[in-house]
Design goal:
By secondary structure, this protein is an alpha+beta fold. 28% of the residues lie in helices and 17% in strands. Helix 2 runs antiparallel to helix 13, helix 3 packs parallel to helix 8 and helix 3 crosses helix 9.
């Protein structure tokens, strides 16, 4: 699972005035994808940019939502998908603004908010070590006792997937090492990882870690006494008025009619059993339930921009202290591009005295992007495939949507929220 665009990490200007998209191929002559939802004429630049983007990349399902100052102003679904589910005839559905997509690492800011809420409610110390919270042994590496909740949140925990395997994507290796059958679960992953040395001293550098966020999910369960999904739905999503979001499943047969299908030209040996069968990568090539706290949520773009409103100001979900903690600079400070990683968000000061926050998500069959920029503007785009060999650059969605925002001369005032919630 990938995360932050390198281009985004290196940007120093405001997101609404991005650099020119690099590596984009000329648009081919093609008819527009069928679209549903609402796109006001004053926001036509967004709609046109998305149509061009998905055409260039041969994307069959996509969504876009745009908001400003707590109002959803544009909500679009693009393309269509077909399914045959057990006991049901094949059906073809247009992508709606409320259709569900896997959102991959956009899940991390949800987990970060859940941890902040537990601390807000006095149930968790952010300086507590993971060894104490989860009862993990530090025998294999005493430095594990230095991994705190905050260091997990800010990717400072000591695991570096450029050095060691990404634990959430090493199912076959873990099963073979432990001498167990597939599928593996969270406890197996933790057992395998805890028996290995860390890759660096905790707190000394940033290294993106899906495993660190998986551990945060287990901390949420241990401290709250609830399942990770139940805690997030009850304490975060329901108070925000969001009811569609849920954790995803691995197989097409397990998905509902409101969830799009995912495409990839790659295959993988199934991680769901020991058959050795080669399967489409998005359907059994990885274990979706194991991804829960680091990349397992299903959502629509309108869900995610509405979720973003939670971070605009103190409210029923998060108070001002929690918001300050979520966006605070880590102990290692800013990176060379002037940004830093908070609790599931990349963060940077913008040129109007506020913060731009953003994140991407990527797994086989999914690419997603959510940004909150200056002047109360936010947008989310989600796609049913990601960049693969030979594809045009997918990270260019960042400057493309930034350019669309800067092209708006008059923002509409009609709030579409009530249409979708």
């Amino acid at each position: 699972m990938t995360t932050l665009s390198r281009r985004r990490l290196l940007q120093t200007g405001a997101a609404a005035v991005p650099a020119i998209a690099l590596g984009a191929r000329p648009a081919r002559a093609a008819s527009s994808l069928p679209a549903t939802g609402v796109a006001p004429s004053s926001l036509a630049a967004f709609d046109q940019a998305m149509q061009k983007y998905v055409t260039e990349r041969e994307i069959s399902c996509a969504q876009l939502a745009v908001a400003k100052n707590g109002k959803i102003l544009l909500a679009r679904g693009y393309g269509s998908y077909s399914k045959i589910l057990p006991g049901k005839p094949r059906f073809i559905s247009m992508v709606q603004p409320t259709s569900l997509f896997r959102i991959a690492s956009l899940s991390k800011n949800i987990t970060g908010a859940a941890i902040a809420r537990l601390a807000q409610d006095g149930k968790l110390s952010l300086t507590a070590p993971v060894t104490t919270l989860l009862g993990l042994s530090a025998d294999a590496d005493p430095r594990l006792a230095e991994v705190t909740v905050t260091r997990l949140l800010q990717h400072l925990g000591g695991w570096d997937r450029a050095v060691s395997p990404d634990q959430l994507w090493a199912d076959h290796t873990i099963a073979a090492s432990l001498g167990i059958s597939l599928p593996i679960d969270h406890a197996d992953i933790i057992k395998w990882a805890t028996a290995r040395k860390l890759d660096y001293d905790p707190g000394t550098k940033y290294a993106y870690s899906n495993y660190g966020y998986m551990l945060l999910g287990r901390i949420i369960e241990k401290v709250s006494g609830m399942s990770y999904e139940a805690y997030v739905k009850q304490k975060l999503l329901a108070p925000a008025g969001i009811t569609r979001m849920k954790l995803g499943r691995s197989l097409l047969a397990e998905t509902g009619t409101s969830e799009v299908t995912y495409t990839s030209k790659f295959t993988n040996k199934t991680v769901l059993d020991d058959s050795g069968n080669v399967v489409p990568y998005p359907y059994g090539g990885f274990n979706m339930p194991n991804q829960d706290a680091n990349g397992g949520w299903l959502a629509s773009a309108v869900d995610l921009v509405k979720w973003g409103f939670v971070f605009d100001k103190a409210g029923t979900v998060l108070n001002s202290t929690s918001l300050s903690r979520i966006f605070a600079k880590p102990e290692i400070g800013m990176n060379s591009g002037g940004s830093w990683y908070g609790f599931g968000w990349s963060v940077r000061n913008n040129n109007v005295g506020t913060l731009n926050t953003w994140h991407t998500g990527s797994m086989p069959g999914t690419f997603s992007f959510l940004a909150r920029i200056q002047n109360g503007v936010s947008y989310c785009a989600i796609f049913n495939r990601r960049e693969e060999t030979g594809s045009p650059d997918f990270d260019s969605i960042d400057p493309i949507l930034g350019q669309a925002a800067s092209a708006v001369r008059t923002w509409p005032t009609t709030d579409l929220t009530s249409r979708y919630f």
